[in-house]
Structures are given as C-alpha cells and as structure tokens.
Amino acid sequence: MITHRCHAVGCTATVPPNLLMCRRHWYMVPKPLRDEVWHHYRPGQERHKRPSEAYLAAAKRAVDAVAAKEGQAALPLGAAPVASVR
Q1: pLDDT tens digits along 34-52
Q2: Is 6 exposed, middle or buried (0-12, 13-18, 19+ CB in 10 A)?
Q3: Among 28, 41, 61, 80, which residue's beta carbon has the most beta carbons within 10 A?
Q4: Sign for the pseudo-dihedral over CA of 44, 50, 54, 56
Q5: How many domains is the chain partitioned into structurally?
C-alpha cells in the first residue's frame, strides 16, 4: 500500500494518499473547514496530481489551523505537497 506523511507540521504518521492528515490532526481542523476541503476535493487528484487551486488553498488553511492549535509555525505555501483528504 502506498502511503505518505500527514501534512500536519511535524507529524510523522503515515496515511493513505487520499488523506490529507492522520485522524488525530484531521479532527483538530474546525468542521466548517473540513467541509470546505471536502467540497473542493475531486476523486483521483492524489493519482493525477492536479488538485484545484481552491482545494490547495483550503488544505493549506486546514494545515495552518492545526499548526496554530499546536503552537507551530505555519509552513509556507508549497512547502509540503498536498494530496487530498478523506
């Protein structure tokens, strides 16, 4: 099974390619923002590597929200590849 790392700053958990974060970090994202990420997710984007700009922006806000809750500095846009969520 192919995996990648959770996109939360400093997390080393591995997750399937269609997930943005591990379960612990994903549920730290406020529900409206999780819904926004899902709204912009398109099935298969983790395979064809062409997520929309709207998805990337929402995913970045989700990563930043977790970083803020954990007292971490947010990463610059594009510092880590973003695949998708589930």
Answers
A1: 999 999 999 989 888 889 9
A2: buried
A3: 41
A4: positive
A5: 1
